[in-house]
Amino acid sequence: MADKENRYPINKEKRGGAWHLYRSEVLAALVIVVLVIGVAFLVNKFFYGFDLPELAFREPVVTDSYAGQGKKGKGFVQSEDWRLLLVNKNHPLEEEFDGELTELRYGQTVDSRIYPDLQDMFDEMREAGLDPRVVQGYRTGEEQQERLDNKIREYMGYGKTREEARQLAVQWEAEPGTCEHETGLCVDISSDSEDNESANAVWEWLDENCSRFGFIKRYPNNKSSVTGVKGEPWHYRYVGLEAAQEITERNITLEEYLGAAR
Ligand SMILES: [Zn+2]
After folding, report:
1. pLDDT given at position 66
2. What is the Å distance from ligand 1's center to 57 Cα?
3. What separation in Å is there between the alpha carbon of 10 and the centre of ligand 1?
4. The domain 52-139+179-257: what is its CATH number?
């Protein structure tokens, strides 16, 4: 009888001890790990897999072919008109923005001089039943540097060398001084509800109407060889009424308008 009572613990020892004792706990832990990874994957897929505009924002996305090159350096003289300031890969800002900023709803800021027209445009969009939202306005050179550094780190995390990581990162994040957001003259616009349908409706309206308020769609899809930036339906740049209307009517870019394209 005593023998029989003792058999079970003895057998446990023989069958591998700890594993047998904790098998169910280990299996439960594995199931939890798999579940956590699965949920993380789905969450990631949800945010990045669909083209949610706010989260898909990364810019400028620099392409290999780049036109502003033709008038690089001495060949191009910036306009005296602040509204026509050209900033791109080959025309970096000469000094950091030091003007007055106006804070928008949700904390983004813009050059105060573009604020009245931006507000009028948003008022009209809201009257049309849309729910636009500025998701990115002014950005400092330092913030741009941080974005670039983060991107470099991200690639290094995938095993790239610093130089390889840098080359990949600059395809997604501009060098500080070359990102138009550092001028305070442009905004990334999405919708409050953040679904694709609402954002598309906002962008469609903007394509039709933004020039009436002095804005242009800065990086049209079919102009990336000129702007050096892949299409960005969300990015609108203030250039003033006259330039906006001409650029829109002639279906050209700011580079072409200013004679800075090849
Ligand atoms: Zn932008």
Report:
1. 46
2. 7
3. 70
4. 3.30.1380.10
